[in-house]
Amino acid sequence: MVRTDGDTWDPATGVGMTATFGAVARAVGTNKGLINDPFAKPLVRAAGVEYFVRVIEDEQYAADGGGDPVMYGMLNILAVHGRFLDEYLTRAARAGIRQAVNLGCGLDTRAYRLWWPPGTTVYECDQPGVMDFKAEVLRALGGKLTAHHCAVGVDLRDDWLTALRRVGFDPDQPTVWIAENLLIGYLPPDAQDRLLHQLSAASAAGSRFAADHMPWTEAQLQEGRAFIEGWRQEGLDIDLAKLTYSAEFGSLPENLEAHGWRTTEKTLVELLATVGLAGRRRVTPHDLAVTPRYVTATLGDR
Ligand code: SAM
């Protein structure tokens, strides 16, 4: 079963739509001061998905507690996670890491909007169509890179590491890896395991890793279906079952530990506290049961 859009990326359907949605969360989050991504709004407008354009223009979402509650909650969570990763990457850069790899980067613009020390390369991997669309919009906007940037259009189920090495990635240097909203079912379990194995093998001592993951329990599946149903009612043609792989996934922290990483896992409450937003959003036990977990990991000498 093929779940990527490949070269013919469509911002309004399937997996392409999920990349657009990440930018929607950053656009709304930027309005609220949860994150700072000045490129998110123009990217969403350029993608042209009518419902998403309405959401970023809707002042209710920019206010605390406004708009559809499920959509509102999801946008906040994504923006806070984005901010957490922004800070995580900046800390890694301050600690001396000069290679950052964003796997399944979608329409993220950290290579244009974050501070990076001189000598840093930001590698981004996603479907070729996503990378081309983003580059074209940022060029038209006059976006200026803040690091050396290598965009790799690749299917992450294939040999993405060879493609990464071809553009200069050096496995002998420590790397900070992020996979934001990717390891939540977008790759089939065997491809996800292979990706973790490959990135671990290509990580020098001192490397770091951060990602969210979701075991897709029954409660999470139900929530996901309800969320997607809300979108369908807004005219988006989307089917969760066709979008994600619901097969059994191994535990992300256990998988990383088996490859030598030391891991820490956070809940949504802990994530909010880490970025100084504890109390900004009330988190119920139900929220905790249906939201992802946030894993960070470091690699020592092997
Ligand atoms: N990380 C971005 C963010 O948080 O805004 C995008 C997250 S989006 C939910 C998932 C991303 O994974 C999409 O951009 C999609 O194109 C990418 N993706 C999914 N399967 C992929 C595959 N097999 N190869 C390359 N990219 C893939």
- pLDDT average, as an integer? 91
Percent helix, as a range, is: 40-55%
Query: How many alpha or pi helices?
Result: 14
CATH class: Alpha Beta
Widest sheet: strand ordering: 3-2-1-4-5-7-6
**Beta-strand proportion:** 5-15%
Q: What can be said about the biggest beta sheet?
A: 7 strands, mixed
CATH superfamily: Vaccinia Virus protein VP39
How do the helices and strands follow one another from N- to C-terminus? Answer: HHHHHEHEHEHEHEHHHEHHE
- Roughly how many Å apart are the termini? 37 Å
Each distinct ligand: S-adenosylmethionine
Summarize the structure.
The protein is α/β, with parallel strands linked by helices. The chain has one domain: Vaccinia Virus protein VP39 (Rossmann fold). The protein has 14 helices and seven strands.
Please describe the structure with a list of short key phrases separated by commas or semicolons.
single chain; 302 residues; alpha/beta; Rossmann fold; 14 helices; 47% helix; globular; binds S-adenosylmethionine
